[in-house]
């Protein structure tokens, strides 16, 4: 059974930091590109950051220089370090695994207060 379980969300003041983690099971983690998406109320889900199975990374322009994605194949986890958070970063953050199919986590709420 495939599972992606996010953790680490919460409430933080603007300028603060949070670290999201996603624990994966039920598929060959090392073969999949892993991503973080987010969806704010009334907006479409958007890609935040992606890390390939080889470790290459890419980021949305809005988070470049503030967020860092990483993966640990031994622990089967992908993390998102979020620094200098802004109120516009408020959203539900989802973990995604993609190869020839894709899987989603249930999401974790991040709220940044001004």
What can you tell me about this protein's structure?
This protein is mainly beta. 0% of the residues lie in helices and 54% in strands. It has strands at 3-7, 10-13, 18-25, 33-39, 46-51, 57-59, 67-72, 77-82, 91-98, 102-104, 108-113. Strands 2, 4, 5, 6, 9, 10 and 11 form a seven-stranded mixed sheet that branches. The chain has a four-stranded antiparallel sheet with strand order 1-3-8-7, with no helix packed on it. It is globular and about 40 Å long. The protein starts with a strand and ends with a strand.
Summarize the structure.
By secondary structure, the protein is mostly beta strands.
Range of helix content: under 10%
Q: Ranges with pLDDT <50 over ≥5 residues? A: none
Query: What's the pLDDT, averaged over the residues?
Result: 97
Helix and strand composition category:
mainly beta
| Residues in β-strands, percent | over 45%
Number of helices: 0
* Most strands sheet: 7 strands, mixed
Cα-atom radius of gyration: 13 Å
Q: What is the end-to-end distance? A: 40 Å
Query: Which term fits the overall shape?
Result: globular
Beta strands, count: 11
N-to-C order of helices and strands = EEEEEEEEEEE
